[in-house]
Amino acid sequence: MKRIVIGMAAAMTLFATGAVAADLAARPYVKAPVMVDPGYNWSGFYVGGNLGYSWGRERDDGTLTGSQSVQVFRTAGPTPVGPPVVTALAATPIWGRSNVNGILGGGQFGYNWQQSNWLFGLEADLQAADEKSTGNICAAVGCPAGSALFPADYKLDWFGTVRGRVGWLATPRMLLYATGGLAYGHLAASAPAVGIGWGGTKAGWTVGAGGEYAIDHNWSVKVEYLYVDLGSFNGAAASATTVANALSTPGVGFNTVTTTTTTANFGTRFTDNIVRVGVNYRFSGPVVAKY
Fold first, then answer.
1. Structural domain includes residue 27
2. What does UniProt give as the signal peptide span (predicted)?
């Protein structure tokens, strides 16, 4: 009996060993999974620089008003003859147009959030500009011959923007986006011939679009268009007085003095079209799949 039990145990051991070996032989050999980079991810902080050119436009619009005072004196006196006669002059338009073009350059920084193929971001930039021009301010629309009042100089010294960005990834490394938000800048304007100046720092708005391409996980290059509207800068009032003396008017022994005073009130509206190229460095590193 003992021998029978020992024989059965040995047979069962051999059977189990063979079954395990057969099962292992039936399974295919599988290698460990390979670490794979899932692709470029745009999320994170970035800084960069840019260089471009702008086609600015300034437009002057306003009204020239004035009055004329006529006073008669006795030549022998001279003694005034009655009070002066004051007449208001008809208001005339003030008109001016010129192109304020030039190069610009500066830096930007921002943050991106990527959600699938969509990107949402915030960006701020500050630009130094060399946009300037000289144009005539006239008393007639279109500045026909003889209507020029005085020449004026214009210069955009600097500007900046704070914008949102919404983009779509055409490929993992190609971003197409629209952008818009706040714009602000400093426009200097002056008319040295009449000794006045105006302009200053104002806030406005901007919209635009662009494309950005990722060279690697940190560096990218971009091209961008912006339209900027800084609104209207109020022109300083300019006044001039001309005195005309007429002897023997209205008759012999009298002298007529005519004084004309004019005042110009106007505003200069500034808009800009900007094309620039730039480079960005993103601080976050590549994304690595975890297993």
1. no
2. 1-21
